[in-house]
Write a structure and sequence with these properties.
- It holds the Pfam family DAO.
- InterPro entries: 3-OH-isobutyrate_DH-rel_CS, FAD-dep_OxRdtase, FAD/NAD-bd_sf, MTOX.
- Its cofactor is FAD.
- By secondary structure, the protein is an alpha+beta fold.
- The chain folds into two domains: about 170 residues, FAD/NAD(P)-binding domain; about 160 residues, D-Amino Acid Oxidase, Chain A, domain 2.
- The protein is about 25% helix and about 25% strand.
- The chain contains eight helices and 21 strands.
- The protein starts with 6 loop residues before the first strand and ends in a 33-residue tail after the last helix.
- The protein binds flavin-adenine dinucleotide (FAD).
- Flavin-adenine dinucleotide (FAD) binds next to helix 1, strand 3, strand 14 and strand 19.
């Protein structure tokens, strides 16, 4: 018997909303299931801003995906009339040999991306809020900037619905199963049971429970975003004059931040890139302590001395990190006929949201994609080992 739907999308956060849109836009009957409301704040896709950049220090293999993502972000703005991306420029700062600087330069050179190398004096001259040490340099990329995550999710949900997708919110999936012979799936929620020809699983921080069969090590990490009101006012932090930044210190600790984009009293957002503590999405501590805010302020003091004026707010978010910090994006190895997975975005996935939507649609409908995704294979050995830079709740780093 044919299924009433072609594809069910589990999870309508960053990736799932994009997948639902691309699948529905190609004329398929889509059901999206989300445990919370639209563009909610309890997963990984909230907080007003996400950095986008192309000179990618993580690996040059991401660059073609980023180029496509930029095109799709622009199309999303065009198709919905929403303001999503602001390319205010970005600097990757650190010692020349740091991963942040050397890796960004490697990607820029390999893909011939427009960029400039600035010494410390030039950084201080062009961006007076930034005070790098004399032995630090920066790669400046004019096409870096930020996108708005909630608007991105809302835009994809809107377009998915316009293309005919049925989206159900406040309806958690309790379990899913593949029908005999891989001839479709059955998905159980708190309210009902649905069947479809194919299932796409985009569960964010809930991957360890919903995708245990992958046998991959996921570390769900609590991360904090801080908004500080700059001392002396936020004018120098306006997006017309202030870049986004990723800044690596001599110990390899990275911070990142944004211009002040939430009005004169909104503060400027900043955070540690990889200093989270393991958590469970059901019980994650949402309160941020004064000691945590003080540690953030201390890290800023020598680098952006004006920024840690007073703390406006601090909000938690979650990363779902794989041992090698690369994504998991493929047909499910145990259920290749019926299930596609998109998870383990390891704290750097948002800039890929639109292209992941396109890739998931390719994989779900055709079993393959023309985009280069070899790095994201769920069968790779690296996924079986624990995360090397796992931080304990006390902030100590284990080896
Ligand atoms: C503090 C912070 C800063 C970041 N900064 C950047 C950045 O600057 N640049 C960048 O590129 N990336 C950044 N990221 C990473 C990026 O935001 C994530 O990789 C991305 O949002 C992950 O999207 P997702 O769809 O996997 O997860 P989510 O958006 O969380 O979506 C998963 C969805 O699945 C739903 N779900 C889970 N279980 C069920 C169930 N049982 N039934 C139904 N629905 C379910 C959840 O409710 C959720 O809506 C950052 C992340 C954080 C937390």
């Amino acid at each position: 018997m044919p299924h009433p739907r072609d594809v069910i999308v589990l999870g309508l956060g960053g990736m799932g909303s994009a997948a639902a849109y691309h699948l529905a836009a190609r004329g398929h009957r889509v059901l999206g299931l989300e445990r919370f409301g639209p563009a909610h704040h309890r997963g990984s896709s909230h907080g007003g801003s996400r950095i986008v950049r192309q000179s990618y220090f993580e690996d040059p293999a991401y660059v073609p995906l980023l180029l496509r993502s930029y095109e799709l972000f622009a199309k999303l703005e065009h198709d919905t009339g929403r303001s999503i991306a602001t390319l205010c420029g970005g600097v990757m700062v650190g010692r020349p040999e740091s991963r942040t600087v050397s890796g960004s330069l490697r990607s820029a050179r390999q893909w011939d991306l427009p960029h400039e190398m600035l010494d410390a004096a030039e950084v201080r001259r062009r961006f007076p809020t930034l005070t790098p040490a004399d032995d630090e340099v920066a790669l400046y990329e004019a096409r870096a900037g930020f996108v708005r995550p909630e608007s991105t999710v809302a835009a994809h949900l809107q377009l998915a619905q316009q293309a005919g997708a049925e989206l159900r919110f406040e309806e958690p999936v309790t379990r899913w199963e593949v029908l005999p012979g891989g001839r479709g799936v059955r998905v159980h929620t708190t309210d009902d049971v649905y069947s479809a020809g194919h299932l796409v699983v985009c569960p964010g921080a809930w991957a360890p429970g919903l995708l245990a069969g992958l046998g991959a090590h996921f570390t769900v990490e609590r991360q904090v975003m801080y908004w500080f009101r700059p001392r002396g006012g936020s004018a120098p932090f306006a997006p017309e004059r202030h870049p986004v930044y990723v800044w690596e210190d001599a110990e390899g600790v990275q911070i990142y931040g944004f211009p002040a984009i939430e009005g004169p009293d909104g503060g400027a957002k900043t955070a540690f890139f990889r200093k989270g503590s393991p958590c469970d999405p059901e019980t994650v501590e949402r309160t941020v302590t004064e000691a945590e805010s003080a540690a953030m302020a201390a890290q800023l003091r020598t680098r952006l001395p004006q920024l840690p004026g007073s703390l406006r707010k601090a909000v938690t978010c979650m990363y779902t990190t794989t041992p090698d910090e690369h994504f998991v994006l493929a047909r499910h190895p145990l259920h290749p006929e019926a299930v596609t997975v998109a998870c383990g975005f390891s704290g750097h996935g948002f800039k890929f949201v639109p292209v992941v939507g396109e890739i998931v649609a390719d994989l779900a409908l055709n079993g393959t994609t023309e985009h280069p995704i070899a790095l994201f294979d769920p069968r790779r050995d690296a996924l079986r080992a624990p995360h090397r830079r796992l931080a304990t709740p006390e902030g100590e780093t284990t080896t």
